[in-house]
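Lecture notes, structural biology module. Today: joint structure prediction for complexes of two components.
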Amino acid sequence: MSLGLALTMLTLIVLIPLAALALRAAALGPAGFYEVISDPRVFAALKVSFLTALAAAIANAIFGTLTAWVLVRYNFFGRRIFDALIDLPFAMPTAVAGIALVSVYSPKGLIGQWLAPLGIKIAYTPLGIIVALIAVGFPFVVRTVQPVLEEISRETEEISATLGANRFQTLFFVVLPPLIPAILTGFALALARGVGEYGSVIFIAGNLPFKSEIAPLLIVIKLEEFNYAGATAIAAIMLAVSFLMLFVINGIQSWSQKRFGHG
Amino acid sequence: MVLKSFQAGLLVFSLALAAGPIAPAFGGQEILNVSYDPTRELYKQYNALFAKHWKETGGNDIKINQSHGGSGKQARSVIDGLEADVVTLALEADIDAIAEKTKKIPADWKTLLPSNSAPYTSTIVFLVRKGNPKGIKDWNDLIKDDVQVITPNPKTSGGARWNFLAAWAWAKKTYGGDDAKVRDYITKLFQHVPVLDTGARGATQTFAERGLGDVLIAWENEAYLALDELGAGNFEIISPSISVKAEPPVALVKGNADAHGTTKVAQAYLEYLYSPEAQKLIAKNYYRPNDPSKADPADTARFAKIDLATIEDFGGWKKAQPEFFGDGGVFDQIYKPAK
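The predicted structure, tokenised, for the full assembly:
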């Protein structure tokens, strides 16, 4: 019963739309498909999308884990409010996030005006895309790491210390290993979200071809040209690469789960 | 007299019957006008004007629903099934696309209303910061070393295509039609563009609110609207020596209107755009009226005399669209891989 329900859901909201996508892209034929993906501009946009998403996911894995740590292990004034704020990027329309970030990081913005004289430009560069993706992906890591961290008792660390481990050893050999599967899950979610993100990025990216043009924008451009097949071809490549990455991350995860337990 | 009002009553009755199944909640008829972004203010006022006129001339109550968005996106919605009775878009190519893909608009739609089915036109001007600190007067000033230009992406914005063509028209005349020099100018121009927003409103915001760039290339009506809404003291409008005559066209979506039984009112809705009252309203909203003699002279006096190229100078949209903005077209060639 529950298996049937799960399969029906999966079919209706994932498999059928994906099949329709594949079908539309297939209308191009192999030669047409190759023409779309061999376009240097498409390649450049895919590179921008995947590299910025990767950079943002790495930053989120590090700072998200740290944030989760602080929220679990420290009791400070306003902790609950801070904790609730973490989820806000989930609830906010991404366009609002994008506009807010631009107004802060543009050369005349709140923070941007202090960085501009130093030659650091954030808005309208790939760096801006990374900032936007960190903002939308941040909750994923915090929320996946937090519950696992809560399960690990403080005593484990104390035991490690009494057995003669220094702080560095405790962190890397005792605390971190059981967290790795959770960090990887958060990392994968943030990465997947970042690759496909359009709403917030479009306002901060600058959208210059070969520099800060993301693959989802190229899809929109193809649609504007009423070129549905070309748009789905790019979408199909993005999905294929994303699937491959998630597959690899899942593999690492199940390996680390066996190795370190937890999850 | 009695007979006439009886006839009118009968007409109202039969029209109401026809509209019945579509609009059960509303006694009169409803039509949907699918339009593009900057026409919000214009059509809000025009719809009220037309509804009043329609009732006075013996029609029944009419409710006009509006939908606004990027011109290309709106065309796609209609192609994908949005039941528009009329479309009032930024580009001929967008209406052509609907005609081609759905057959709901006759292929010769452009000839069905006066002046290429364009009841109003507009042009492309520059918006600069107060006092014009960079001394921008014409297109050649836009490629000076320290000038940053804001214009949206012609691939995603209808208005940006007009911007592009206006620059091209100027360069073509200035360089005596030397194609290599014209391309060189356009390439340089886009090297001065730090951000390519996806739509005209986005570009206006980047310029006006984020404070980026020295000059915004914009629709004339958008530029005036920006003066109105963002403070007349902050910006100035500069008219270049050459620009383009943008003709945002309108068309009846016959397939949909016939199915709704709204063909007659929808047709009247479009024709009334050419009336003196509507032309006056159009000029008031900073669009250039088709027939300036009907408009308030104070309104038309605001429009600078600019040498205007038309889309026909580019061989019409059917040729210009793929040549300049299509996949691999001139605009795509400007951007080369950064190596």
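Point to remember: Chain A touches chain B at residues 40-41, 44, 102-103, 106-109, 123-124, 202-203, 206-211, 217, 220-227, 230 (CB under 8 Å).
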